[in-house]
Amino acid sequence: MGRKLAMKWGKTDIMQKQQMIYLGIGAGAALLIGIVLAFAMSSGQKDGERMNEAPPGLQLDIAEAPAINASRTLRCFVSGEYVGTFTLAECAQKNGVAAQALDVGVDESGELSAAPTASLAPPPAEPVASTPVETEGGAAGGEVMPGNLDDSGGPMAACLRYAGGEWRRLSEGLSLGTCAQLLYDGRCERPGSASYGRWGEQTLRLVPGRVEVSNDNKSFRTFVEQGKGCSVPLVK
Q1: pLDDT for the residue numbered 51
Q2: Ramachandran angles phi, psi of 32, nearest 5°
Q3: Helix or strand or coil: residue 62?
Q4: Residues annotated as region Disordered (predicted)?
């Protein structure tokens, strides 16, 4: 009788040990699977475009004009005045120009707008001979900055910036390309707005996406297109 009980308890003990072993193996396998899945998910997120390439927050490339649906309305400016919301074709008709002649982008109110190039910023009067020099701090510091500061070759002339209602001379000796780059590299303009400069007897104008030049301070032609980030490549 005692021997049978001993054998029964021995078998029970062995079964309990086996169960514990199986449970341990199962728990270990589950943990291993969990680690593998977690690693796979983490690796997938790390290698994905969202993690590595897309910067946080909304990114806008001002240098690229937005695509406009023909039926979409936007704020329209005529001769610098807001005239209401119209389609791009209707706004162009009100301005008496082709739709391609309008600059389109987001204005100060955050709304999509269209206006003829620089219609909100007419050219300023030409500078006088006594235009002061703009120093590094932006203040006037004499009439002329002597010396040729540009070794890119080609004709040299004075380079001036128009800001705050007055002209400031940046340098007495720059090429046209270097002057345009100095004035406008990395600077973006809103539709209908413009920034002006001078190179010798020519007027420079920055409008959305390009730098223009004029010989008479009235008729402008494209000098150089801006690149990504409103960069201005050096034109020799």
Answers
A1: 33
A2: -65, -45
A3: coil
A4: 113-149
